[in-house]
Amino acid sequence: MNTFEDRNVINGTWGEAWSGSDYLAEVIGMSAKIEMDFETVNRVRKLGKGKKLMGYEGKGEIKLNKVSSKFLKLMSENLKAGKQTTISFTSKLEDPDALGAERVHIKDATLETMTLVDWEAKKLGEESIPFSFTDWDLLDTIDE
Fold first, then answer.
1. Fewest CB atoms within 10 A around its CB: which of 12, 63, 74, 91?
2. Under 8 Å between Cβ of 62 and 30
3. Taking Cα atoms as reference points, which of 142, 140, 137 lies closest to residue 89?
4. What confidence tens digit (pLDDT) does each residue in 91-136 have?
């Protein structure tokens, strides 16, 4: 891309998220990243270290306005039964001035932290739920 219009930069205000088929109206942010694992490859007559991809780890976090105990109840029930909480998330970002929409489906988000209590006087309630995952699909991408 040689140039772009300022108005084409995507604004996160237009982001949306789903947990399975449930729309998450309370979402205020979401991130998901892949961290790749490499092993060093040493070679004779080369001072630089090479790298060989050996695997990856998916990590993310969803941030929500605290309006219900939905995720707390789900994680609590599963944990007390000795089960891990694994769900799917879909993220959509579609700014009206952007050049398209981006949708990503995370297939196997394992929720990793359960916060029982977190509040403060004169502060709006929020919850952040970190997760890990191993698989995803790119449903829509923004092409140049």
1. 12
2. yes
3. 137
4. 999 998 888 899 999 999 999 999 999 999 999 999 999 999 999 9
In degrees, rounded to 5, the angle at the alpha carbon of residue 75 between the alpha carbons of residues 66 and 121 is 30
- Tell me, yes or no, whether 106 lies in a domain: yes
Answer for the pair 89, 130: CB distance below 8 angstroms, yes or no.
no
- Which of 40, 33, 43 is CA-nearest to residue 54? 40
CATH code, domain carrying 118: 2.30.110
Give the predicted TM-score (pTM) of the model: 0.89
What residues pair up with 19 in beta bridges, in sequence order? 22, 89
Give the residue numbers spanning the domain of 42: 6-140
Tell me if 28 is assigned to some domain. yes
Count of domains forming the chain: 1
How far apart (Å, rounded) are the C-alpha atoms in residues 20 and 4? 35
pLDDT surpasses 80 at 48: yes
Q: Name residue 96's amino acid.
A: P
Q: What are the C-alpha distances in Å from 1 to residues 5, 95, 100, 116? A: 11, 19, 15, 47
Identify whether 1 is part of a domain.
Answer: no
